[in-house]
Amino acid sequence: MAVRLGDIAPDFTADTTEGTINFHEWLGNSWGVLFSHPKDFTPVCTTELGAFAKAKGEFDKRNAKIIGLSVDSVESHNGWKKDIEETQGQALNFPLIGDPDKKVADLYDMIHPNANDTLTVRSVFIIGPDKKVKLSITYPASTGRNVDEILRVLDSLQLTADHQVATPVNWKDGQDVIIVPSVSDEDAKAKFPKGWKALKPYLRVTPQPNK
Ligand code: BEZ
């Protein structure tokens, strides 16, 4: 069954390039980003893993742990790691799950049979400190992901977890946000002391409250 927003992220124990982990224990109180790769020694995945590794400091700043998965063995991943470092100029610095029996891929519905019977699609799940799934995105094997977009969504999720705001189209950290419609103007006066601009009664724009 598909993993949906608001569900508890399925827990699992799996071998990774950094040893055996229990997913929920490994997450601890952090946010988590779990992403799948169709196969080892494939070109697009090689570039993605290099890019995630280069951005690890940005995830750390956001108290988010990152973990990849590919439906090959950890032994195979260890061979691939050398190619990632050689071609992308960056060593892998986070765990990559070995999932040859597709146990985790099945738990997270990462195999879409009408796309491919055996390979995972490029899934991304963002999981909150409460272990609930906050975001899921699915890309086809032919399209590499955008790491900046994943960081951008993480910024939005963390902001909107703490403040009664939503982030508009193409929003980036530091830009104005929208007061959610469930907050009355009366309550907004206390919650948003910087004030707001009402373009419509339901579209109230305010400076990002945590800046
Ligand atoms: C890739 O990562 O390059 C890839 C993997 C599976 C199918 C197509 C491309």
Describe this structure in words.
- There is one protein chain.
- The protein has 211 residues and is an alpha+beta fold.
- The protein is 31% helix and 24% strand.
- The strands form 3 sheets. It has a 5-stranded mixed β-sheet. A 4-stranded antiparallel β-sheet has the order 8-9-11-10, with helices on one face. It has a two-stranded antiparallel ribbon with strand order 1-2.
- The chain is elongated.
- The chain starts with 12 loop residues before the first strand and ends in a 5-residue tail after the last strand.
- The structure holds benzoic acid.
- The site of benzoic acid (BEZ) has 9 residues, from helix 2.
CATH level-four homologous superfamily name of the largest domain: Glutaredoxin
In what range is the share of β-strand residues?
15-25%
The description of the largest β-sheet is: 5 strands, mixed
- What would the average pLDDT be, to the nearest integer? 97
Share of helix, binned: 25-40%
Name of the top-level CATH class of the largest domain: Alpha Beta
Overall domain count: 2
Low-confidence stretches: none
User: So how many helices?
Assistant: 7
Judging from the principal axes of the Cα atoms, what is the shape?
elongated
Q: Determine the N-to-C terminus distance.
A: 40 Å
Number of strands: 11
CATH fold name of the largest domain, please?
Glutaredoxin
User: Could you state the order of secondary-structure elements as H and E?
Assistant: EEHEHHEHEHEEHEEHEE
User: C-alpha Rg, in Å?
Assistant: 19 Å
Helix-strand category: alpha+beta
Bound molecules: benzoic acid
CATH architecture of the largest domain: 3-Layer(aba) Sandwich
Read across the widest sheet, the strand sequence of neighbours is 5-4-3-6-7
